[in-house]
Amino acid sequence: MSKEIIVIIGGPGTGKSTIIDGLIEKGFCCYPEISRQVTLEAKKQGIEQLFLENPLLFSELLLEGRKNQFKSAIEETHKIVFIDRGIPDVLAYMHYIGDSYPTHFDLACRENLYTKIFILPPWEEIYVSDEARYENFEQAKLIHNHLSETYQNYGYELIEVPKDSLNNRILFILDEISK
Prior knowledge:
Elements: E1 4-10, H1 16-25, E2 29-31, H2 35-44, H3 50-53, H4 55-75, E3 80-84, H5 87-97, H6 103-111, E4 116-120, H7 137-153, E5 158-160, H8 166-178
Parallel strand pairs: 1-3, 1-4, 2-3, 4-5
């Protein structure tokens, strides 16, 4: 079996981190979303919402963090590694806000290729905003569309995870991987 680097994507509040936590509980190797970490570091430096104040800097930091996650995933002894959001997410968010970005963002997407992409659809019943998730549900749906388009533009086939219980969502993902 070759290395599987699997990304779970979706707009804000779709259950990505909950699924990652559930996969960790089942013994899988998983890498968490890093945007909250970047946001918390910026807050320590007095920047309340780095993505809103300096989206390019925020995106550069995310891009580097996600490239490092990919490199670490390649080096893992585990045959399967799950990642909460991938490199193309950075571009999707830049498209969402209408900002341009340097060509090395595109290069990073072309050089660091994932095995499978699972996308979680917008789900209003579980959507909650907080201090790090400032988007409303309508914005979350737009972000979902940008994510879908961006990943598909890089040639990925998106596997939509149905709205269901946590256990059933995890079983769906594991079943798709075993095909």
